[in-house]
Amino acid sequence: MITSTGVIILSVQGVPIRLIEVDAWTLLFARGVLSAPGLFVFFLVMERSGWRGQLRAMGLAGVMAALLFALDNVMFIYSITHTSVANTLLMISLSPLFAGLLTRVVLRQEVPRRTWLAIGGATVATLVILLGSLVTGDLIGTLAGLVAAIAIGGTLVVVRSRPSLNLVPAVAIGAGLGGLIGLPAASPASAGLRDWVLLVLLGLLIVPVAFGLITTGPRYIPAAEVALLLLLQTVLGAFWVWIVVGEAPHGATLVGGLMLIVVLATHSVATLKSLERDQHE
Questions:
Q1: How far apart are CA 158 and CA 154, in angstroms?
Q2: For the chain, what is the radius of gyration of the CA atoms?
Q3: Residue 225 scores a pLDDT above 80
């Protein structure tokens, strides 16, 4: 319920982003500086009396999570403002597979054969989407989404490596860092009243609650289950933008996206069944 609620809330963010009429740097700045305090308030509500101890215990894990989330923020905003929402979300959906690869490289844990097969299938699907982006001229935006997926995958690895820690404050710092990166080129005065209403909705409500819940989820459920639930964002996010804004996915995005969702869903279900077998044994 924690992760599902966070994913459903996060799936809505593409709509206000498309409706906000400011440049990418201003959007990055406003989203970052507004969501950082929102995430910290979420952390205080969750931890209550134990928040001081959690802050002191973050250490290197907190630093790594903050830097990775800052990179994710920058790449996500660049991607979603330079390609379709569907393309960006499909790239983001690859983050669990990158988490699996990084787990092998960083934590020296074995990667199951099913994960390698899923990576192969996801690579083919991603190439289809990238070829479509090359035709439509938004390849750089799609590639930025791919970098954002790697950063999210890294953040998930850090969170899973320290399940006793609440790393929401690190995510808050990362959001703030992302906002500061956008500050030099930002133009807050260019935002109108409607823009600021949407920015406040995005930065103080949608992003903090969604990422607070999603960051909390991996402490209680298997990574495969988190990956399966994250697919909701890919489908719902593109659907909301199509319904509200009228942004229909490109043909290559539909083909590659369907392939990608089938591959990732199959992998997640297989992983969950494997975990259940291990528990019974």
A1: 6
A2: 18
A3: no
* Residue 70 exposed, middle or buried by CB count within 10 Å (0-12, 13-18, 19+): buried
Which of 74, 68, 82 is closest to 142 using CA atoms? 82
Contact 131, 252 (CB under 8 A): yes
Q: What is the pTM of this model?
A: 0.84
Q: Which tokens is 231 given?
A: 């697919």
Q: What angle do CA 252, 253, 257 make, to 5 degrees?
A: 120
**Residue that has been written with the tokens 């199509």 in this structure:** 242
Rounded distance between C-alpha atoms, residue 86 and residue 240, angstroms: 10
How far is 7 from 202, CA to CA, in rounded Å? 14
pLDDT at 77 over 90: yes
Structure tokens at 273: 């069944």
Q: What CA–CA distance (Å, rounded) separates 69 from 52?
A: 22
The residues, any chain, with a CB within 8 Å of residue 108's CB and separated by 6 or more, are none
Find the DSSP H helices in the chain.
2-10, 14-19, 24-47, 51-57, 59-80, 85-92, 95-106, 113-136, 139-161, 168-182, 193-200, 207-216, 223-245, 251-280
Q: What pLDDT score was predicted for residue 222?
A: 64
CB neighbours of 60 closer than 8 A, spacing ≥ 6? none
Mean pLDDT of 202-221: 84
Interval 24-52 mean pLDDT = 89
For residues 162 and 70, the model is more confident at 70
**For residue 95, what are its two tokens?**
């983050």
